[in-house]
Design a protein that fits this description.
Elements: H1 3-10, E1 13-16, E2 27-30, H2 34-40, E3 45-48, H3 55-63, E4 67-70, H4 78-87, E5 90-93, H5 98-107
Parallel strand pairs: 2-3, 3-4, 4-5
Antiparallel strand pairs: 1-5
């Protein structure tokens, strides 16, 4: 699955990082503790987090994550959007909660 498939299939809003839409997604990871994400997320995971500060972009870039998904329509900081655009890290926004996001990925065949 590609990041752009997430946008199309799940109707997520692209907040930043349009240039990252062709990244491959191999898994899904959900955590808000940044140090834990750094030690447990895998390359090409789509990452769900309620964090919206600039450090999420640094972690996504460091780990080569596919994209960041911000649930429950949480507003993303402007500095974060700018940095994500610079780093080509796609950030999505959705009204869905974490459970519903995981359900969408499962229904799309990600196991």
């Amino acid at each position: 699955m590609l990041v752009k498939d997430i946008k199309d299939k799940f109707d997520f809003k692209v907040v930043a990082g349009e240039k990252g839409l062709n990244n491959e997604v191999k898994g899904l990871y959900c955590c808000d503790l940044l140090s834990w994400v750094m030690s447990h997320a895998k390359e090409r995971d789509a990452w769900i987090t309620v964090q919206t500060h600039i450090n999420i972009v640094a972690i996504a870039s460091l780990l080569n994550l596919a994209c960041i998904i911000v649930p429950e329509a949480i507003e993303v900081d402007e500095d974060t959007i700018e940095k994500a655009n610079e780093e080509n890290i796609t950030i999505f926004s959705t009204d869905l909660d974490n459970f519903r996001i995981f359900s969408k990925f499962y229904e799309a065949g990600m196991r």
